Amino acid sequence: MSTFTRGSTSTSTGSTSDGKNGTLNATTTQADRRPRLSGMTWLVWRQHRAAFWTTLAATALSVAWIVYQRGQLVDYLDGYGYPGKSLDEAGGLLQQYIDALSFVAMGLQAIPILLGVFLGAPLIAGDLENGTAKLVAAQSMSRTRWLATKLALAGLVVVVSTGVLSAVFGWWWNPVKSETAVMDWTSGAAFDTTGPVPVALTLFSVFGGVAIGVVLRRTLTAMVVTFGFTVVLQLVWGYFLLSLGNVVTVTTNKGVMGENVYPSLPQGAFEIDQSYVTGSGDLVGWGTCSGSQTDAARQVCLDKADVVGWSVQYLPMSQMNAMQWFGASILFALTAGVVAFIFFWGRKRLI
């Protein structure tokens, strides 16, 4: 007959006693207190661990490469004498750093599409297609909790990966941020890869893919449709990007010919449109009188049209941060609507 004593090891608790005063072994206690996934969280993580770990590993490798490239860029700029010397005189030596920046920016712009197709679309569509959703519904776990856990873990991975990449890419670009020749801040390569925009775009793409998968219930079909959805999203977003800012208009009245008559714009400003302004305040196209054979004939034509100066519309670079947050807030609101739809559909017609 065997008996349990205080000096024995408890397999149910994983703790040990010293046989004299019953104190717990410190090492074992600390090990027991390590955070571990359990229940539905563990199940969802294990089910999608390949996609989650691939995303996080790719993020870590990208961050390491960006940190290295940023060091190379800073060393070059210090050796060149920037900002004391203009980069206009750098010639082809700077091009390799611009190419590296552009290459990474292109990759970051593809993240919403990739995660939408390979993470969002199969997230629930796969369970609906192979019957896992019916198995979950037969358990004591509610559909709402199952959906919430799925979306929460996927959203957490998306926010962490895109947030980190956005921060380090912005850090890399920051030394030459005001140089439009390096990268125009209104382009998708800069605007969509820094600040909150990549997080918002990717979340909307991923949860949009989830919603498509919930409705279509077929993984491959959902992935194809999600690809089209994310591509269209990028195109529409790029079309309306400039409308997020407040256009600034500056005019002159010193004529349009001669030196120092064109308006002086802030560094990094993105010029939207330019035209001539007349004495009455009307705008005419800058091509007015361009067919004149001589400068004197052109001046006579301009005087006849009552042209007195330039009118230029532009977006200052100082608006970039506000534009990004405004655009991101719109995307976050749309994402919240998609999530609400997923829960509504899941409660009614998911299984």
How would you sum up this structure, described in words?
It is a single chain. This protein is α+β, with helices and mostly antiparallel strands. 59% of the residues lie in helices and 7% in strands. The chain contains 11 helices and 4 strands; from the N terminus they run αααααααααβββαβα. Strands 1-4-2-3 form a 4-stranded antiparallel sheet. The longest helix has 36 residues. It is elongated, with a radius of gyration of 30 Å. The two termini are 53 Å apart.
- Please describe the biggest sheet, giving its number of strands, its sense, and whether it closes into a barrel: 4 strands, antiparallel
The strands making up the biggest β-sheet line up spatially as: 1-4-2-3
Approximate strand percentage: 5-15%
Query: Low-confidence parts, pLDDT < 50 over ≥5 residues?
Result: 1-24
Helix residue percentage: 55-70%
Question: Total number of β-strand segments?
Answer: 4
Distance, first to last CA: 53 Å
Pattern of helices and strands: HHHHHHHHHEEEHEH
Number of helices: 11
Strand pairing plus helix content: what structural class? alpha+beta
Q: Indicate the radius of gyration in whole angstroms.
A: 30 Å
Shape: elongated
What integer is the average pLDDT?
Answer: 85
